[in-house]
């Protein structure tokens, strides 16, 4: 069984280690722990992870976050992956730093990457992991905050939270969205 795991982020060295690129960072850590490497392919960097008889296609779209939908659609079609085996990993300013929430579907909550995926797919019925980045920014400074680097305190806590996000991804693929939500949400 195949799954498409999409980490949202922006390409380019100026965006590395920014809050908006947490999707990329989580998939990079997952690939590294699995001893696989991303290769540049159509619409993004891609690698495959084997997990107990399942194939996980990890995708870091080469489009900017706000245009991720075409990459998602292309890889779903190319790999013949149904929407119930799609998982998108995204940053969320509405959640405190490091909070991880798995949702089976939902609104874009103002996130332009999710909005574009919804527009391209024609619905919002796909699973997503929302990784909390907090919202400690002055009024009118949201873009600077989201595209900003992690604080030293956040950076110190990041590896443990990334590991937890990888556990959620694996669980989603092995036991499904509902059971995974009961194990990990609000923990």
Report on this structure.
- The chain is α/β, with parallel strands linked by helices.
- It has a single domain, classed as 3-Layer(aba) Sandwich (Rossmann fold).
- It has six helices and seven strands.
- A seven-stranded mixed sheet has the order 2-3-4-1-5-7-6, sandwiched between helices.
- A hairpin with a 2-residue loop joins strand 3 (44-51) and strand 4 (54-61).
- Helix 2 crosses helix 3.
- The mean pLDDT is 94.
Please outline what is shown here.
With 187 residues, the chain is α/β, with parallel strands linked by helices. Helix content is 37%, strand content 22%. Helix 1 crosses helix 5.
Query: What's the number of structural domains?
Result: 1
Q: Which sheet architecture does the biggest sheet show?
A: 7 strands, mixed
Oligomer: single chain
Which overall shape is indicated by the principal axes computed on the Cα atoms? globular
N- and C-termini, Cα separation:
28 Å
**CATH arch. level architecture:** 3-Layer(aba) Sandwich
Question: Number of DSSP helices?
Answer: 6
As laid out across the biggest beta sheet, the strand order is 2-3-4-1-5-7-6
Helix content estimate = 25-40%
| Strands, count | 7
**CATH superfamily, called what?**
Peptidyl-tRNA hydrolase
> What's the CATH class label?
Alpha Beta
Query: In CATH terms, what is the fold-level topology?
Result: Rossmann fold
Proportion of residues in extended strands: 15-25%
Rg calc? 15 Å
Mean pLDDT figure:
94
Question: Structural class, from secondary structure content?
Answer: alpha/beta
Order of helices and strands: EHEEEHEEHEHHH
Please mark out the parts with pLDDT under 50 across 5 or more consecutive residues, or reply none.
none
